[in-house]
C-alpha cells in the first residue's frame, strides 16, 4: 500500500475571537501606503495574532504619492500616506510640528479604538519599513523620558501621543531601516538621530551611534534577505540596539511582509516569545 502522511493539524482556533479585552498592538504602515493596505499585507500574520492581540491600524498624517511596489495591487486604495519625509519633494516641516502630527495621528487611531470597544492595555508597536523605523524611534523616545524621570526622581512625562500612562513594552520591526528619528529633541541630543523634519534616509546626517541613541527596549527584527535595503535593516539591529535586547528572524524574501506559512510561523513564534518576555500572555498558534 502507498505510504500516507498524517494531515497537519492547525493550532489556529477556528472561531474568530472577541478581541475587546485583548492587549493591543498599534500597527504603523510604511511610506506611500496607508493603514488599510498594511492590514491587507499582514493578513497571514493576523490569522495568528488576532487570537492574542487586538491589532489597531493607524494612518500616517502626511499625504504622498503611492509607493511604486504597491501600485499594481493597491493602486486604487488611496489616499497614500507617510510618517516621515524620504524624498526632496516631500513638503518641509519643522521638527516640532512633525512630531505633533505623528502623535496626533497615533492618538486618533487609539482613541477611535477605545470608542469601538477596545479596553486592553497598549503593549506593543508593529511597523513595516518606515513604520518600523517609527516604531523603534517611539521606543527610544519613551526610553529617554524614563531615563530622565529616573535621574530627576520624577514621574515619567507623557509622550507625543498625550495619552497618560502609555507604556510600550516591545516593538516588532518588519524591514525597519536605520537611522532612527529624533522624536524628543528636548531630551535627545545625539547626532546619530535624524530630525523629524529632515529626510529620514541617508547617513550623511548621522554620526557614530552613541549611548543616548542606543535602544534597549525589546525588539524583534524581521529581515528579508533579498531586500535591497537589508544593509540598513542590519545597521538598525547591530548599531542602534543593545546586544541582548533583540531577536532576529531572517527569511528568503524581498521588501514585503511574509505570507507563506513556513515564514509566517517563525515570525509569529518570535512575536509570542518577545511578548511573553515582557509579561504579556498569549495564545500560541504555532
From TrEMBL:
Alphabetically sorted, this entry's keywords are: Hydrolase
The family database entries (InterPro entries) matched by this protein are listed as: AB_hydrolase_fold, FSH-like_dom, LovG
Serine hydrolase domain ranges (all copies):
22-265
A single Gene Ontology biological process assigned to it is: secondary metabolite biosynthetic process
Q: What is the official name of this protein in its record?
A: Serine hydrolase domain-containing protein
Where is the chain membrane-spanning? Answer: none
Cross-referenced SUPFAM superfamilies: alpha/beta-Hydrolases
Q: Which domain of life is it from?
A: Eukaryota
GO molecular function of the protein, one example?
hydrolase activity
| PANTHER family per UniProt | ESTERASE DBAE-RELATED (PTHR48070:SF3), ESTERASE OVCA2 (PTHR48070)
Q: Which organism is it from?
A: Neocucurbitaria cava
Amino acid at each position: 500500500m502507498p505510504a500516507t502522511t498524517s494531515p497537519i493539524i492547525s493550532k489556529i482556533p477556528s472561531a474568530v475571537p472577541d478581541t475587546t479585552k485583548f492587549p493591543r498592538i498599534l500597527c504603523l504602515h510604511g511610506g506611500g501606503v496607508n493603514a488599510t493596505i498594511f492590514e491587507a499585507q499582514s493578513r497571514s500574520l493576523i490569522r495568528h495574532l488576532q487570537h492574542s492581540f487586538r491589532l489597531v491600524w493607524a494612518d500616517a498624517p502626511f499625504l504622498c504619492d503611492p509607493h511604486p511596489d504597491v501600485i499594481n495591487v493597491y493602486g486604487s486604495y488611496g489616499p497614500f500616506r507617510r510618517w516621515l519625509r524620504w524624498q526632496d519633494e516631500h513638503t518641509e516641516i519643522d521638527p516640532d510640528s512633525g512630531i505633533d502630527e505623528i502623535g496626533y495621528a497615533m492618538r486618533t487611531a487609539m482613541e477611535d479604538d477605545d470608542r469601538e470597544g477596545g479596553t486592553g492595555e497598549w503593549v506593543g508597536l508593529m511597523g513595516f519599513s518606515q513604520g518600523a523605523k517609527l516604531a523603534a524611534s517611539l521606543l527610544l523616545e519613551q526610553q529617554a523620558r524614563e531615563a530622565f524621570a529616573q535621574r530627576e526622581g520624577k514621574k515619567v512625562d507623557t509622550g507625543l501621543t498625550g495619552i497618560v500612562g502609555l507604556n510600550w513594552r516591545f516593538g516588532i520591526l518588519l524591514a525597519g531601516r536605520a537611522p532612527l528619528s529624533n522624536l524628543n529633541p528636548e531630551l535627545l541630543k545625539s547626532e546619530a538621530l535624524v530630525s523629524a523634519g529632515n529626510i529620514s534616509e541617508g547617513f550623511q546626517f548621522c554620526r557614530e551611534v552613541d549611548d543616548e541613541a542606543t535602544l534597549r527596549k525589546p525588539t524583534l527584527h524581521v529581515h528579508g534577505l533579498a531586500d535591497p535595503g537589508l544593509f540598513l535593516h542590519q545597521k538598525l539591529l547591530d548599531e542602534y540596539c543593545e546586544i541582548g535586547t533583540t531577536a532576529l528572524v531572517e527569511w528568503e524574501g524581498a521588501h514585503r511582509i511574509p505570507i507563506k506559512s513556513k515564514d509566517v510561523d517563525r515570525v509569529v513564534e518570535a512575536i509570542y516569545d518577545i511578548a511573553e518576555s515582557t509579561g504579556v500572555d498569549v495564545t500560541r498558534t504555532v
